[in-house]
Amino acid sequence: MANSATAGGFLLVLAIVLPVMGALLSLTLGGRHAERIALILMPVGLTVAVAIAAVVWRAHNVLQYFVGSWDPPLGVAFRADGLSAAMIVTAALLISGIGLFARAQFPAQGGAKARAPLVFWTLLLMVWGALNAVFIGGDLFNLYVALELLTFAAVPLVSLDGRAETFAAALRYLLFALLGSILYLLGTGLLYGAYGTLDIALLSGRIHAGPVAWAAVSLMTAGLLAKAALYPLHLWLPPAHAGAPAPASAILSGLVVKAPFFLVVRLWFDVMPGLPEHAAAQVLGGLGAAAIIFGSILALRQARLKLLIAYSTVAQIGYLFLMFPLAVRPETGHPWATAAWTGGVLQAVSHAFAKAAMFMAAGLIAEALGHDRIAGLAGIGRALPITVFAFGLGGLSLMGLPPSGGFVAKAMLLTAAVAENQWWWAVVVLAGGVLAGGYVFLVLARALADAGEPLTLLSTISRSRQAVVVVLALCAVLLGFVPLRPSELLQIGRPGLPIAVFR
Amino acid sequence: MAFDTGLAVLVLGVAVWTITARDTFAAVVGFVAFGLLLALVWVRLAAPDVALTEAAIGSGVTGGLLLGAHTHLRRTETAAAGELPGAALRLAAAVLCAMVSAGLAAIVLLLPEPAPTLAPQVAANIATTGLGNPVTAVLMAYRAVDTLLETVVLLLALLGIWSLAPDRVWGGFPGPHHDADPQGVLTFAAQLLVPVGILVGVHIFWVGSVAPGGEFQAATILAAMWILAAMVGLVDAPPVSRRWLRILLVAGPAVFFAIGLAGFAMAGAFLAYPPPYAKLLILTIEIPLTLSIAATLALLVAGPPERAPQR
Amino acid sequence: MSSPTLYGLCGAVLVGLGLFGLIVHPQPLRKIVAFNLIGGGVFLLFGVVARRGAAAGFGGDPVPQALVITGLVVAFAATALAVALLLRLFHETGRATLRSDG
């Protein structure tokens, strides 16, 4: 393992410290400067993220840092493996893109109008810092604090517009999130009581199958599922993500909701490697399948565009949890386990880009039309062609059509399912793709329909904002050119998983 | 042992009352009592630092916040009572929760003996931190990054609360204005109590390095004194847009970050303290941190701005 | 039965009680109180773990105790944010309920 106070370790600290200090500076200086601070930090943070990925790739090993030079179990460790590196870079790219998009919506202001820009830019930086803390945290309690940081940064974004229904949505989100956190904390306490450490690497060596470990992991997983809005704990997500302003919805659906999924992966594959029972993984997969089916069906029934996209998030999160029954028990040496691993992570990353692009496109459409009723979208395809094109590109990833990251992800999951004789997951993946096609085409058909008379837009939508949306959607498409085999980057840090070879 | 049994039964009894009481006011009062009893339990569990924190934050400030909320929401009581779920759902929930409790109880009984512990490691390393209180050593040295992030979490909650204010009062005065009644008994009591409370707070902060106490408990006491003074009208909350207030709030975490980053140069790692200066550095962090946390706690209770700032 | 174990069982019951209150009460303020009860139970379990780890001259393992202090502060911040959201919801709509559509 790479040792503590290396230059690489400094990068891990910066990944958290820079955005958080930027947010504190924003809070001090006020609404006039918040936007500029965020815009200055974006390229810096992006450089740090790419640097971390480069160091991890070059060393082909986990990058580790002991905070304060205290070794675990006494101190707290930061660790970045291939998975962390991929998520950190995704977060940096998305935050930068969303920030550029949001400049027009939250311009720097002072006085009475300073509330929304100050809050937005400060919370954007805090979400970024919190996400990085989740991705590199190597200590379970440190991860609890990072999760709370993320929740407190995300919830006020929901009610940023100040509309009455958003307060209810934000409160419901907060209550679900708090229940999730306290269950997670309870599990952490039980693990400490049984093994005397909360460091993930140390725990993986000490933990053994037994009632205490099972209870702890079940509690923590249940809590994280509530935060990830996995069926049936998904009720809070659609009103919250649909009620937030478009850039906030992009952050929430693209990144915030992936963090608890990331922690379930850490818990199942790093804290207790090789331990999870096949049955437990099937339960998780079953919930994921239910999320895909019910989420997609509910999406088809929505009358408002943003709610449709939000229910689509509920469905796409389900794909992430299909990874578990297909990747658990890697020590059987089954090569398809690593295909499922790559597929799940690729789904998380490509969905982040695709969903962010779709929410931002919906935001532009709502700004132009003054409403987001799907029935009233006729003619917008002609008025905002670039935006609708971006929406369609994002939809490719959701449906799992080539070329898109979503296609590669779902193809890997399909292949793993068939190869491991768990064909029922393959059925679910295919059904989900068909249903996603349903609701994407529902929107595109209306948008591309002829309105009869030319549409008068409520406001002009700048080319640069549309360009940002298209670029993010193209990122999701570019991921489709990733080779159709388990990623070497994502394998860094995975103990004992053989690299599979696709024929 | 008999005392512990009695205390545990009492705690559970008050908790049951808090959950099953019809009236929300009774439930909140029950919760405050619950918190104070819990503080006693912490003393019995040989955790005086936690007992202080539970009494001050868990029971005192939280109780005040909930009581204040209840006053506003009194009118909604009758409407809400009609939405109580049916008996079947309540029974199902009761069964589910009983199973959860039973499972947890079983786990408690299954915890390994002898219990794993980090106490020896804490004791072995505490000399390099210059501290005498092991809990403070964990908070400010071994797991300082948790404390640092937690302070940011507090501040973030405050920003979240401020974000709820309507645009027209943004940056304004939190909470309603309280008029001072110079002849009032409460004002008199406050004028006596507040200086004493401040001294107690400072004392608890100071001894926290070697005895139970520390910045969180001290900050809560200071915040409570401020809240008391504001309630009787001796002081008024400043408008939240004031630069000096923002600096006060941010100073604690900012100094913490600065010393943490300086640790790279001084001791080779983020948040590392060179042993000869460890206690001095920790003190340098703790003083602004206590003030920032006190201000944050007080403002968290005060709520979002309600009166427009003067332009 | 030793007194830490007794308090551990007490904590287990508190978690169940709080969970019941969270599920059953329609008023968000009661849910917030119930959530704090669950928190109390969870922290109590940490405290039991700490007491069982008494060694090296300390009455309890300082690490879980410190974690509880952190948790108490975070729980208060959560309560404050939830209460502020609830009050704002009430001021806007005149109702204090989460029972809306969707």
Can you give a write-up of this model?
The complex is a heterotrimer of chains A (503), B (311) and C (102). By secondary structure, chain A is mainly α. In chain A, 72% of the residues lie in helices and 2% in strands. Chain B is mainly α and 311 residues long. Chain B has a two-stranded antiparallel ribbon. In chain B, helix 2 runs antiparallel to helix 3 and helix 10 runs parallel beside helix 12. The termini of chain B are far apart. Chain C is an all-alpha fold. Chain C has a single domain, classed as Helix Hairpins, CATH 1.10.287. Chain C has 3 helices and no strands. In chain C, helix 1 runs antiparallel to helix 2 and helix 2 runs antiparallel to helix 3. In chain C, 76% of the residues are buried. The chains are: A mainly alpha (503), B mainly alpha (311), C mainly alpha (102). Chains B and C meet through helix 1, helix 2, helix 3, helix 4 and helix 5 of B and helix 1, helix 2 and helix 3 of C.
The strand line-up of the biggest sheet of chain A is 1-2
Radius of gyration of chain A: 22 Å
CATH hierarchy: architecture of chain C: Orthogonal Bundle
CATH hierarchy, class of chain C: Mainly Alpha
Average of pLDDT of chain A: 88
Average pLDDT of chain C, rounded to a whole number, is 89
SSE succession of chain C = HHH
Shape assignment of chain A: globular
Largest sheet entry of chain C: none
Structural class of chain C: mainly alpha
Number of domains of chain A: 3
Strand content of chain C: under 5%
The structure class of chain A reads mainly alpha
The helicity of chain A comes to: over 70%
Please tell me what the overall shape of chain C is. elongated
Spatial gap, N to C terminus of chain C? 49 Å
Percent in helix of chain C: over 70%
N-to-C series of helices and strands of chain A? HHEEHHHHHHHHHHHHHHHHHH
**Residue fraction in strands of chain A:** under 5%
Name its key features.
heterotrimer; A: 503 residues; mainly alpha; 2 strands; disordered N terminus; disordered C terminus; B: 311 residues; two-stranded antiparallel sheet; globular
What is the topology?
The complex is a heterotrimer of chains A (503), B (311) and C (102).
Chain A: H1 7-29, H2 31-59, E1 63-66, E2 77-80, H3 82-102, H4 115-136, H5 140-158, H6 164-195, H7 200-206, H8 211-228, H9 237-243, H10 246-256, H11 258-271, H12 278-300, H13 305-327, H14 336-369, H15 380-383, H16 385-399, H17 405-419, H18 423-448, H19 463-478, H20 488-491
Chain B: H1 2-20, H2 24-44, H3 48-73, H4 77-81, H5 87-110, H6 119-129, H7 134-142, H8 144-163, E1 173-174, H9 185-207, H10 215-231, H11 243-267, H12 278-302, E2 305-307
Antiparallel strand pairs in B: 1-2
Helix pairs in contact in B: 1-2, 2-3, 3-10, 6-7, 7-8, 8-11, 8-12, 9-10, 10-12, 11-12
Chain C: H1 3-24, H2 28-52, H3 62-93
